[in-house]
From TrEMBL:
The keyword Hydrolase applies. Belongs to the LOG family. GO terms for molecular function: hydrolase activity, hydrolyzing N-glycosyl compounds. It comes from Clostridium kluyveri (strain ATCC 8527 / DSM 555 / NBRC 12016 / NCIMB 10680 / K1). This is Cytokinin riboside 5'-monophosphate phosphoribohydrolase. PANTHER family: LOG FAMILY PROTEIN YJL055W. InterPro entries: LOG, LOG_fam. Its EC number is 3.2.2.n1.
Amino acid sequence: MKTICVYSGSNPGLHPEYQRNARLLGKILVENKIELIYGGSSAGLMGEISREVLKNNGKVTGVIPRGLFSGESVHKSVTRLIEVKDMHERKKVMSDLSDGFIALPGGLGTYEELFEVLSWAQLGIHKKPIGLLNVLNYFNPLITMLNTTCTEGFMNQSSLKIISISDNPLSLIEKMKNYTPPIMKTKWREFS
């Protein structure tokens, strides 16, 4: 893995552990010679991880829509800033540039980006590793929801294997480096 796209909050969250783990992940990316691909903001956890990567002489590519967010501060010191026309193009460019994806705690945008790459993996559009950095058990309700989705017959158990989960950034990177895409059962139960 040479590049990882990190989805995270443009807010810092209420607990300092969120920020600390964003910075730790940034440091670990640099130690592993992995370039950060992210949404281009200097705010929240997005700003924390990008500043840490840059502080440790790593590479950061920010991808941000032109003029879309007047209140969001663009991180002007990134290694490369790519301006795109809209959110759809932003997500496509970030995906195309990335060898894997990690979600940190965040809001609706983080969930939306995460679920898109999960859906694409389930459909076989990509076979890149996807990780959840489960700081303070933030993603436990989401993990429970995904398990419920399986037990209620809306998703196969094999789909859960496309997600690597850890509360430790180094452990998560190691899991993602060793990721082997699971053999996916047919998505549609009626035809299996």
